[in-house]
Design brief:
The chain has 417 residues and is of the alpha/beta class. The chain is built from 14 helices and 11 strands.
């Protein structure tokens, strides 16, 4: 922890300002930051609505200030709005657009600065209409939230606004949709330009209904539920390489590509995860199918290490699993940090024999024995690995040949210990 803003900003490449939404406070922080900051250090404000031009006023180097607006929970939602001011350099914008994907985030450049940018203007429009619906007794907060989360909220999470309506237009697309529903713009379907009086009566009405809706659930528990659901939604989207899931998949691939060279003489670290809530079953521990999924991810990690990665698959060769045997040796609970290491038992001809061990710290949780066959994907038949893969397999097999034989290797189901 630094003792001052100046100390914190010394030698930094990126300075993120997240102080209260008051220009005088922000300007005071910038002034102190610039006393030690490098001239080319980016200054990124997380303001929700102040234009960057207004923030740049007193800066010595206004060209390096921009808005980088994230969304709560920042550690799960990938999008950030990138907004430049009148004096922001194109270099600063491009550096931010390049840097934030390395954190697994999805930067979106806002083309013109405007108060509240894009997302908060959309949220404000929905919020104002929602206030009217509650105030006029059309629905309760519970009913309105149900309409969102059981309906169009699910569509928006994967398609956004315009792709949702494009699909609604059918084969004729967006032009047909707009021709069909364009006249609605002149109908009395919104009070968007009219704001209800924000008085104690309205506050009491909404607060009371909100308390009745979810006041019995502690805030921390609601946050946990929200985060669990966000993770599950993004993992589902990742399986289809779509939306927020595409950003997650790209980030994980980059992390795997940049992983340091392993110590080939030891069992290889091939997969690690903090057990998410949706991996648990009705008994409160990790369900059996997730053991196989985790070991499958470990096999994928090993395959990337030896060169049978996405590029290899595109070139027409891969490894298929022919046989698997899993031993469940200990319970795995939510939020446990589990890690899998992989040992090559044998790699001859078309066959690769692997041994996985799953641990939480030093505690052995499960083992899995796999027999893999190298395949020609075009012929859909077994085949010898390409020379580069063969060389890597031989290298690992030779390095692992001196490792102790794993306890439990070759066991069959029901065999006594």
């Amino acid at each position: 922890m630094a003792s001052s803003v100046a100390d914190a900003c010394r030698d930094a490449d990126l300075i993120v300002e997240a102080v209260p939404e008051r220009l005088d406070i922000k300007h005071r922080v910038y002034a102190e930051a610039e006393t030690t900051a490098k001239p080319d250090a980016l200054i990124a404000s997380s303001t929700s609505g102040i234009k960057p031009t207004d923030l740049q006023g007193p800066l010595q180097h206004p060209e390096r200030l921009l808005v980088v607006h994230p969304f709560n929970p920042v550690y799960l939602l990938p999008v950030v709005e990138i907004v430049g001011g009148q004096q922001t350099s194109e270099d600063a914008i491009q550096r931010a657009m390049t840097f934030y994907p390395t954190l697994g985030m999805k930067p979106v450049r806002v083309r013109k600065e405007i108060e509240a940018f894009v997302a908060d203007r959309l949220l404000e429009a929905l919020w104002r209409e929602a206030l009217w619906l509650i105030k006029d007794g059309i629905c309760t907060t519970q009913e309105l939230d149900d309409i969102v989360r059981y309906g169009f909220g699910l569509r928006w999470a994967q398609l956004g606004v315009f792709d949702t309506y494009r699909v609604a237009g059918g084969e004729a697309g967006m032009r047909h949709f707009m021709a069909q529903f364009g006249p609605c713009l002149s109908w009395p379907w919104t009070k968007l330009m009219d704001v209800p009086e924000f008085d104690d009566v309205l506050v009491d009405l909404i607060a009371g209904q909100s308390d009745a809706q979810s006041g019995h659930i502690p805030i921390r528990q609601l946050e946990r539920i929200r985060d669990d659901n966000l993770i599950a939604i993004q993992k589902a989207l990742q399986a289809n390489n779509w939306g927020a899931g595409e950003a997650l998949a790209r980030h994980e691939a980059a992390l795997a590509k940049d992983a340091p060279e392993p110590d080939w003489s030891k069992p290889l670290p091939t997969f690690a995860i903090r057990v998410p809530a949706h991996w648990l079953d009705y008994n409160g521990h990790m369900t059996e199918s997730r053991y196989l999924e985790a070991f499958a991810f470990a096999t994928d990690g090993f395959m990337r290490m030896i060169g049978t990665d996405a590029d290899a698959i595109a070139a027409g060769h891969s490894l298929f699993t022919a046989e698997t045997h899993i031993r469940h040796l200990g319970e795995v609970s939510r939020d446990e940090d589990i890690a899998i290491t992989t040992q090559v038992i044998e790699a001859k001809g078309k066959k690769v024999h692997l041994w996985h061990e799953m641990r939480e710290g030093s505690r052995l949780l499960a083992t899995s024995e796999h027999l893999l066959i190298h395949m020609d994907l075009n012929a859909r038949a077994s085949a010898e690995p390409p020379p580069a893969v063969r060389a890597k397999l031989d290298h690992v097999a030779q390095a692992h040949a001196s490792l102790p034989t794993p306890d439990g290797l070759g066991r069959h189901v029901g065999q006594r210990r």
